[in-house]
Amino acid sequence: MNTATTRRNADGPGLYTRLVSGLVFPLHERLKHHDTVAVRRGLEESQWWPRDRIEALQLKRLRTLLADVGAHVPYYQRVFRERGFEPARVQSLADLQRLPFLTKAEIRAASDDFRHPAAGPLARFNTGGSSGEPLVFYIGKERVSHDVAAKWRATRWWGVDIGDREAVVWGSPIELGAQDRVRAVRDKLLRTRLLPAFEMSAAKLDGFVAELRAQRPHMLFGYPSALSHIARHAEQRGVVMTDLGIKVAFVTSERLYDEQRATIERVFGCPVANGYGGRDAGFIAHQCPSGGMHLTAEDLIVEIIGSDGQPVPDGQLGEIVVTHLCTREYPFIRYRTGDMAVMSAERCACGRGLPMLAEIQGRSTDFVVAQDGTVMHGLSLIYILRDLPGVQGFKIVQESLALTRVQVVAGTGFGAEQEAAIVAGFRRRLGLGVQVQVERVGAIAPEKSGKYRYVISRVQAGGQTQPGAEAVGA
Asked: What is the mean pLDDT of each run of 10 residues along the chain (474 residues)?
């Protein structure tokens, strides 16, 4: 029996939580024509299957998806015809590699051609555009049901169920703009409190800390930058948060740094569970109490590809490519996420058969390129700033091979000496001929979604500049 199950059996969910998870939420999903409850039950069974049985399920569902979209979806009718691809001849997951990659550009150029003619009402979504390529796309009820079920399964790993008190620190206009009366009633019934992450002024942070103390949530959910920011503020104010009874802090949508994890765990007195996914690609992976970053393999096929477009061996860094098996109504097949990760060859100590990511290193734009062509993670620059006294916040933008800009929120102890250390340190990493501009600012603004990014590079491997990359920081 896993750790979360043991904790749930020991503590036992409260009567209200049992009522919500067993009656209220299932009724809510049924009224919305979602199959979330049945899907979650299936996922909780299949997670313990051996790897070969999970792969057999993936193959079966892949064949069904390909046959359907190949017969009905205009975009894939055209692609299959041009490639001479016959879904009926798919014999293994590797046969998927015979299809081209799907990019944001293709979806933007042929948006209506991705819609299945038998699709019901589709929800319109968009990505935040932090890569410089915002994307509008559509999601059907099947995809929503599976994504909600996948998250639900993951929260139950940690002894948290639907109906337990939850504080969500988020900044997406989609959620914040949809707080109508019906949603407000639903959130109240589910005991979910949404805290907007757009503004992190001292007054707002005081308010967040007070609300968390009043609500006493069982779990936190949000950006690691926002949760760690609230945690540091509470610590600076001398407000104790370890007595709230928080079981876990779920973080997602940004790279989780070790320092952020340590801060959140120390201040809130709970473990941090890392999650990875996106509106476009789906709920891809989540960390279990044993530490494994498990893929939602029943719903997704994940490939890790190198710069040549070919799969890389387990243990090597590459770009994440996703085929979502529940997107018949608006298919995402071999979708390039732009995120970089390493696949694990290990099996988790928890006993689940779900494959794992060994490491998630962030977007391709989180990597910088030195003047000699060396590609390195933005951490190589972050460490220089993080170790300097008086640095309260920063944003790094690599504009070109010749120019990198650094914005710094300067506190006590930051002066000309620290500025010179930034310039010298960056030049050691990027090249002695690089111009490094340091600008002191009052605050670092989040991007439109409310997220923060430490590093944005507008330089591709090979030295070319990427047009339109949106620069945001933390």
From this structure: 41 84 93 94 98 97 97 97 96 96 91 94 72 72 95 96 93 51 82 80 88 97 88 95 97 85 97 91 94 97 94 94 96 92 95 95 69 75 81 88 94 92 94 95 71 76 46 30
pTM of the model: 0.77
CATH number, domain 370-457, options 3.10.560.10, 3.90.79.10, 3.30.300.30, 3.40.50.720? 3.30.300.30
From the centroid of its chain, how far is CA 229?
Answer: 18
Separation between Cα atoms, residue 194 and residue 222, nearest integer Å: 10
Spatial CA neighbour of 25 closest among 210, 134, 150, 161: 161
Give the CA angle between residues 49, 53, 54 to the nearest 5°: 75
> Thinking of the domain 3-363, which architecture would CATH place it in?
3-Layer(aba) Sandwich (3.40)
**Contact call for residues 334 and 303 (beta carbons, < 8 A):** yes
- How far is the C-alpha of 452 from the C-alpha of 438, rounded, in Å? 19
What is the spatial distance between Cα 298 and Cα 388, in angstroms, rounded to a whole number?
45
Determine the 3-state secondary structure of 367 from DSSP: strand
Which helix (DSSP H) or strand (DSSP E) does residue 169 occupy? strand 166-170
Q: Is the dihedral of CA 80, 82, 83, 88 positive or negative?
A: positive
Q: 283, 335, 325: which is closest to 305 by C-alpha? A: 335
Cβ(257)–Cβ(234) below 8 Å? no
CB 58 within 8 A of CB 326: no
| 323 DSSP β-pair partners | 301
Which positions ≥6 away from 61 have C-beta within 8 Å?
A: 325
Pairing of strands 166-170, 219-222: parallel
Q: Which two three-digit tokens encode residue 267? A: 């201040």
Q: Are 220 and 191 in contact (CB under 8 A)?
A: no
Say if residues 137 and 195 touch (Cβ distance below 8 Å). Answer: no
Q: Which amino acid is at 421?
A: A
Burial 198-231 (b: 16+ CB within 10 A, else e): bebeeebbeebbeebeebebbbbbbbbbbbbbbb
